[in-house]
Amino acid sequence: MNDNSAVDKLDDQTDEALMVSYQEGNTAAFDVLYARHKGGLYRYVLRQLNNHTELANEIFQDIWMKLVNARLRYQPSAKFTTYLYHLAHNRLVDHWRSEKKHQQHIEYEDILENQSAGPHNKLHQQQVQKEIKQAIALLPEEQRSAILLKEEGLLSLAEIAEITGVNRETVKSRLRYAVKRLQGMLHPLRPVQ
Length: 193
Fold this sequence. Notes:
70% of the residues lie in helices and 0% in strands.
């Protein structure tokens, strides 16, 4: 069997199976996991840290190191993404505690789809994106985290509940309040005609 067919076999495995394979010493399994999840995880961390690239890079690497160090304790009882984002959430909480900053600014790009590329609409879209970033930054940390876990991590309510240590209904409430707040803050924004 050549290296390409071994990698192809890994590509077909679930995240959980890859993590178990990595536990058993297969470093190629880690490479596949990293390739699958680096983009979403990095965007989640970056946006939680107001686009502070240097700090986001440091925390992003810390999260992967935590995964490497915890690989022998991993139990495939939950989805791998839940486990990974739980590590990320905890690392961010540690950062905020150490910095004693509870109002983080984040960037939330690509929230507007199918906008016209005309100069007026493009200018309006940039203004709306700026307003969205500011509005999300004003959300309480719990609501902001829930929104980003759902949108960036593509996690379910149950997974977000597990990561944040609250029940599913609390997650639903946080998301509902966050959306209501955002709608209230962003209501005046209208597309340029």
